Amino acid sequence: MKGKKWIKAVYPAAIVALIYLLVTVLRQLGIMNGYYNQVLMFAGINIMMTASLNLVNGFTGQFCIGHAGFMSLGAYGAAIVTGMLFKHTDSIFVFLLGLFAGGLAAMAAGMLIGLPSLKLKGDYLAIVTLAFGEIVRALLRLVKPIGGARGMIGIPGYANLGWILFFMALTLFLLRNLIHSPFGRAFIAIRDNEVAADAMGINTTKYKMTSFCIAAFIAGVAGGLYAHVISFIQPDNFSFTKSADFLVYLYAGGSGSLTGSVVGATLLTILPEFLRFLADWRLAVYAVILVLVMLYRSEGLCGGLELPFMRIRRKELYEEPLFGKKEKGKEGQA
Question: Is residue 70 classed as helix, strand or coil in its secondary structure?
Fold first, then answer.
């Protein structure tokens, strides 16, 4: 049994390593150029953003539509550290420090917006998160030391496909374990019936805040990676349109499924580039495909399904109680 668990834990890392090795070989052979490599990097960042949004919308049952606001704070926070504070220091530790700082900045904003707003539900919460994203964008346009409306330039290009695949795999691994932990079961209980969860003793505000902050931190790290891929950011890069993209990736792939986050973000990032040969018809065809998916697969492409290594067997899932520790000698009692 332990051997199987070890193999299940290594399997995703092996897939990511094989993808990186394959891309490296294709680039060496001249089959894959820098453009395709950059598309793959954007796909990895979008997977991180979609998976983090899935934690809030899909697994906790909230409705956040301003996720790009957290991404912008992470992008600017990381860029300030690497591009301004340590611009003369060429070190990978500075890059990691910048990503961590961006994640913390986004998480702090998540706490500030979450404390007063997570008592709201449905459309009201959606309006607050939308307003948050637009407020952040407007404030970034007014701060002159970080470029204002013109944006920041000269951000070091530390991020590459290897780093993005590493953080993407780490995000999916951590979220997979979180969702199948007692915390994750509390998130799902809140999603299914918040009143019943509260009646069972679950502190719904605490768990919703935890979900919100974790998602904001991941979005901040993804924003930092994004900034160090394109080396230039401006507030308009993180408008409501960007948040809407992540919502499309989430619900097209399948809400409540990490596999759906991967499938939706990957396919819908690559699809517009694949359709470039259609020129002006590209976006029209892209929209038609989305409409067809929603009509004939309303639950998403994955529909709550998970790949084997992205889920835990039911027996393993309920080995531990939701609250407290299991008492010895009482396992068989009803």
Answer: helix
